[in-house]
Amino acid sequence: MNRTPTITITQEKIDKLDSLLGIFCDRANTVWSILITISGQLLMQRGFVYSFDVLAISALACGVFNSTMELARIVGENKFSQFLQEGKKFSVYYIGVNEEYLLVSLFDDRTLPGVVKVASKEFSSEAEKILYNKS
Amino acid sequence: MANLNFAKKELNQKIVYYGTGLCGKTTNLRTIYAALNPQRKGKMMSLATELDQTLFFDFLPVDLGDVKGWKLRYHLYTVPGQIYYNASRKLVLKNVDGLIFVVDSQQERLDENIESYINLQDNLKSYNLSLNDIPMVIQYNKRDLPNILPINDLQLQINKGGYTYFESVAIRGIGVFDTLKSICQLTVLKQMDDLIQV
Q: Are B151 and B140 in contact (CB under 8 A)?
């Protein structure tokens, strides 16, 4: 059998990412944010939403993201690396971190989609450096 | 794709139940969900049609104990079996760590089982994978029905790769945990082999 790829997360990386996620949540003023793998496994979360099933949301979010990637491929785009689901009370913003991770943020009218978008892009770029040891 | 979390000492793996429509994939998950202690399972989620057929996937996170201080957490998924949901099926297969191919043992479903097996190979191929790359076990389900094929016939027609197999009656819980235990062992062994190679 060939070796299948594995994501390995060390304590050091977790600490750095957790701090980065905290900065992101403050800056973007999101209600709740999660960093998950592209196969739907939760790495970390920030914020507090008491009635949500985090594991279920992670699995659904990765399904949504992967479906969107496939849709991109079908219409001839390389990828749709970020997108927004807009609701009346809450909206959800998705952004990929490289090909293997996904940041999902729930936010309400205390912030603006544009702010979340800009902060998400910054997070994605910084998180990529941490996860892939890039300087 | 397995996720080794050194901070939490957790190994997370993704297991996918694959097979033709109405072969019993969701029933496997429901049986597991019903049998496990609440501490060992998360919420089961089903994205199904009005006819209770899986539309995108079913999902059940389970915690199956510790090995040398490492928590083993499995994310169990099923694929939609109906032919026209192939795009969804392919997506669920992404980053899979272990496969359970569920076979409907009834005579009249043989062709559909074979078609599903070929479809699995094709979908893996789209991720540059083959059945040689992913641990797999086969589950011959619905063994309580009167019109089933003998195991030897099913083995000849479907299990050409010589995979470990189990007979089951998923609706009554027979063979469900044997199948799950087997794939979990295989995926952990594969993970250990992969780590040794690094």
A: yes
Between residues 86 and 105 of chain A, which touch chain B (CB distance below 8 Å)?
Answer: 100
Q: What does B117-176 look like in DSSP terms, one character per residue? A: HHHHHHHHHTTT--TTTS-EEEEEE-TTSTTBPPHHHHHHHT-TT---EEE-BGGGTBTH
Instruction: Show the domains of chain A with their CATH numbers.
Output: 11-131 (3.30.450.30)
At which residue do the structure tokens 């082999």 appear?
Answer: B193
Cβ-Cβ contacts under 8 Å for A41 (sequence gap 6 or more): A58, B3, B12, B14, B75
Query: For residues B136 and B184, what is the distance between their CA atoms, to the nearest angstrom?
Result: 10
Test mutation, A18, A35, A41, chain B, max B CBs within 10 A: A41
Residues on chain B touching A72 (C-beta within 8 angstroms): none
The fold of B3-197 is: Rossmann fold (3.40.50)
* Interval B36-63: pLDDT, tens: 999 999 989 888 776 677 778 899 999 9
Q: How far is CA A125 from CA A17, A102, A122, B29, B158, in A?
A: 12, 12, 5, 38, 47
Write down the pTM of the prediction: 0.88
Residues B51 and A88: their CA atoms lie apart, in Å, by: 30
Q: Measured between CA atoms, how close is A3 to chain B, in angstroms? A: 6
Flag whether the ipTM exceeds 0.90.
Answer: no
Cβ within 8 Å, pair B3-A9:
yes
Residue pointed to by tokens 């997506």: B91
Q: Which tokens sit at A89?
A: 């009370």
Beta carbons of A55 and B42 less than 8 Å apart: yes
Query: Residues B150-173: pLDDT tens digits?
Result: 999 999 999 999 999 999 999 999
**How many alpha carbons lie under 13 Å from residue B109 in its C-beta half-sphere?**
24
Q: Are A72 and A78 in contact (CB under 8 A)?
A: yes
